[in-house]
Design a protein that fits this description.
Layout: H1 11-28, H2 30-41, H3 51-62, H4 65-79, H5 83-91, H6 94-110
Helix pairs in contact: 1-4, 1-5, 1-6, 2-3, 4-5
Length: about 110
């Protein structure tokens, strides 16, 4: 018999839900920084429209696609009982978030 929690979820799926929620909160936190940085990225056009400015702004404004897409994809995979794939997809935004938080912590601790 499988280890079933009181609400009927198998223990392994319950742990998957915990990781999905935890990793998505961490992965979505950089969107708060993005909300501040995105409007300022439009200042790249202050000296006129150029290919470099357009690519820079496009890269900044396309960033939310990664964490939001990962959230939607992970929960869709979880609904279809593909837990390993959901764990992988939900961890992708952490490749951006963890180094970013490390860099911010470095700047904060070094006084820079």
């Amino acid at each position: 018999m499988e280890n079933v929690s009181p609400n009927g979820l198998i223990r392994r799926r319950w742990l998957t839900v915990v990781w999905l929620l935890l990793s998505q909160v961490i992965g979505l936190l950089p969107l708060l920084l993005w909300l501040v940085a995105a409007p300022f990225s439009l200042m790249a056009f202050d000296s006129g429209v150029s290919t470099d400015a357009t690519l820079f702004v496009a890269a900044i404004w396309c960033y939310p696609v990664l964490p939001i897409g990962a959230v939607l994809g992970a929960w869709t995979l979880f609904a279809f009982k593909k837990d390993k794939a959901a764990l992988f997809v939900t961890s992708l935004p952490l490749l951006v978030a963890v180094p970013l938080f490390g860099f911010i912590a470095y700047l904060w601790l070094s006084g820079g």
